[in-house]
Amino acid sequence: MAKLCTPAADRRRRSLESVLAHIQAHLGEPLRLNVLATMCGLSVWRFATVFRERVGMSPYRYVNHLRIQHAQALLSQGMPAARAASESGFYDQSHLTRRFKRLCGMTPGQYQAAQSPNNSS
Fold it and tell me: Looking at domain 63-114, which CATH architecture does it have?
């Protein structure tokens, strides 16, 4: 009986892997849940459930985490926060700052200052 379910489970796993790759490749662009669900051939509700089961967090939270990580990398390279925000897929610098502070406990400017090699703390 389990063998009958295996091909569908394998397809979902492969399609979820393609969605994760799509998210990585298009992080700076709007990522609509309905588009991601369609890529897997699932309803939005079912996609969100499967995603949460497999990844351990909601699609929204996953994308936010990746965007913050990308912004951190850009800020570490000395990129201005406004540009890092737009390249990471945030609406504007304020949006980045709110999400960044909630996740990292500091503003992008504070993070950038802490990453500076000339930081004399």
Answer: Orthogonal Bundle (1.10)
d(Cα 26, Cα 33) in Å, to the nearest integer? Answer: 13
What is the full DSSP assignment across 38-57?
HHHT--HHHHHHHHHHHHSS
Residue from 73, 113, 67 nearest 89 by CA: 67
Q: Which residue is it, tokens 């950038």?
A: 112
Count, residues in the chain: 121
Q: Distance between the two ends of the chain, CA-based, in angstroms? A: 63
Contact assessment for residue 88 and residue 28, using Cβ atoms and an 8 Å cutoff = yes
pLDDT tens per residue, range 46-61: 999 999 999 999 999 9
What is the distance, to the nearest Å, from the Cα of residue 78 to the centroid of all Cα atoms in its chain?
21
Q: Does 4 have pLDDT greater than 60?
A: no
Distance, in Å, from the CA atom of 17 to the CA atom of 117, rounded to the nearest integer, reads 37
Strands (E), 1-121: none
Q: What does the pLDDT look like over 26-45, one tens digit per residue?
A: 999 999 999 999 999 999 99
Q: Largest Cα–Cα distance of the chain, in whole Å?
A: 64
